[in-house]
Specification:
Blueprint lengths: L14 H17 L3 H8 L3 E10 L5 E10 L7 E8 L4 H18 L4 E8 L7 H15 L8 E5 L5 H15 L20 H20 L7 E5 L3 H12 L3 E6 L4 E3 L6 H11 L13 H4 L4 E6 L8 H6 L2 E5 L8 H8 L5 E3 L1 H4 L2 H15 L5 H26 L3 H20 L4
Parallel strand pairs: 3-4, 3-5, 6-7, 6-9, 9-10, 10-11
Antiparallel strand pairs: 1-2, 2-4, 7-8
Helix pairs in contact: 1-3, 1-15, 3-15, 4-5, 6-7, 6-13, 6-14, 13-14, 14-15
């Protein structure tokens, strides 16, 4: 289909935003949403850009550019991660906020989507510089965020420590400890047990559900994981615990492939010690350009957006495509996958929703000051994932549509219904 033009004066552009916009138009057509309702559903409520000046360790001054996009506040506060990446721009941030909205609605969470971040390479900064820019970013965001307005979380390039700095900065401004302003914090600072592992565990759980439907026994099945950060590493660990053999893995520094299987505990120890996969093995080194097309039962892209294009989709040799990253598959690739029913797609807004689900649990526990143990957190996580998975598969069966179409239709419908019920404030 031909997309409608971007509204005049829009600040949103770039390939990732155009991908999110194209996906939405497909769903809007499927749901027969009138043209005059679409922009209100798609375009974010608010976008903030800030400058974050700091003193570097050598005494010089440096300015970093930060962003935060809040997609909608119709169902409750916005919720979303904070990404530190060198090439971050507001169109990418907006796309991630939009996807988070559909993800939260699909999971049944009382949130709208948000996303934020700073254009920087965290590996190029010292710990002191990283703390300075993180605290300055939160200080600049204080007028626009809050436990009932916008709740931050970690994403690529950030972690529990950054969330602790965010929380402390916000709390010092308000003169009291406000743990519920961010999620993904250390447990000792009001975080929840199981949050760090939640996204990866959720990915593995949903892969298990897909295996059940396809009649694949986890024991002896094979997996390839692209990306070995928080999500990819915990997904690999959880899959290995289920008996799945990891035959391929990569990050931005190295790629390894061995059809006999890789030693997952050894990979985890190496990554924990060195921060990257580089140096793990010389014998098993492989070409990252060919990793995704190696034969396997489940392929887990857990890195960045747009890694599976139409050409790559035609060459995949997996039974299950578990989208642990946000937006790893382009709309053009979706058209190819529509003609390959042998590949069972677990779309990103379902597959990686474990993180925001347990972030919701953390927020609830912080608001109540009543905490659950890890077993309760994990059990509650699996129940919500099972419910969302069941709803998606029921829609796939009833309407004979692609898995992504079913998942996004559920999310978009919920947001649209809430907006229509609340009406348009004059």
């Amino acid at each position: 289909m031909t997309q409608p033009p971007v509204p005049s004066g829009s600040v949103y552009s770039g390939p990732v935003f155009e991908m999110a916009r194209a996906q939405f138009q497909v769903i809007a057509d499927h749901l027969e949403i009138p043209a005059d309702e679409r922009d209100r559903l798609l375009y974010p409520k608010r976008a903030i850009t800030v400058s974050c000046p700091i003193h570097t360790d050598d005494g010089r001054g440096a300015v970093f550019h930060g962003y935060r996009v809040q997609h909608h506040l119709t169902l409750g506060p916005t919720k979303g991660g904070t990404r530190y990446a060198p090439n971050l721009e507001i169109g990418e941030v907006a796309a991630l906020a939009i996807w988070m909205s559909w993800k939260c609605a699909l999971a049944g969470l009382p949130y709208g989507g948000a996303k934020g971040g700073i254009a920087l390479d965290p590996r190029a900064l010292s710990r002191h510089e990283l703390e300075s820019v993180s605290r300055r970013y939160m200080q600049e965001m204080i007028p626009f965020v809050g436990p009932h307005t916008d709740v931050m979380a970690p994403d690529m390039g950030t972690n529990e420590q950054v969330m602790a700095w965010f929380m402390d900065t916000y709390s010092m401004h308000h003169g009291r400890t406000v743990t519920e302003i961010v999620t993904g914090k250390p447990v000792d600072c009001g975080g929840t047990a199981g949050r760090r592992e939640a996204t990866g565990r959720g990915v593995a759980h949903l892969i298990g559900r897909a295996f059940d439907r396809l009649g694949i026994a986890p024991s002896g099945a094979t997996a390839i994981v692209q990306g070995f950060g928080n999500v990819g590493s915990y997904a690999a660990e959880a899959l290995a615990a289920r008996g799945v053999k990891l035959v391929g893995v990569s990050d931005h520094t190295a790629c390894y492939y061995d059809p006999r299987g890789l030693d997952v505990p050894a990979l985890l120890r190496h990554a924990a010690a060195h921060g990257v996969l580089a140096g793990f093995s010389n014998e098993r080194a492989a070409d990252p350009a060919t990793l995704l097309t190696q034969p396997c039962d489940v392929l887990v892209p857990a890195a960045v957006e747009r890694v599976i294009d139409a050409d790559m989709a035609a060459r995949l040799r997996c039974r299950v495509l578990a989208e642990a990253a946000n937006g790893p598959t382009t709309p053009e690739a979706d058209l190819v996958l529509a003609g390959r029913p042998e590949i069972f797609v677990i779309p990103d807004i379902l597959c990686n929703s474990g993180g925001v689900i347990v972030s919701y649990f953390e927020w609830v526990q912080d608001l109540q000051q009543f905490f659950w143990d890890e077993t309760e957190v994990t059990n509650r996580l699996y129940r919500l994932l099972d419910r969302a998975f069941g709803q998606v598969m029921a829609r796939v069966t009833a309407e004979r549509v692609a898995h992504r179409t079913a998942a996004m239709a559920i999310g978009v419908e919920k947001v649209r219904a809430a907006k229509n019920l609340r009406g348009l404030f004059p």
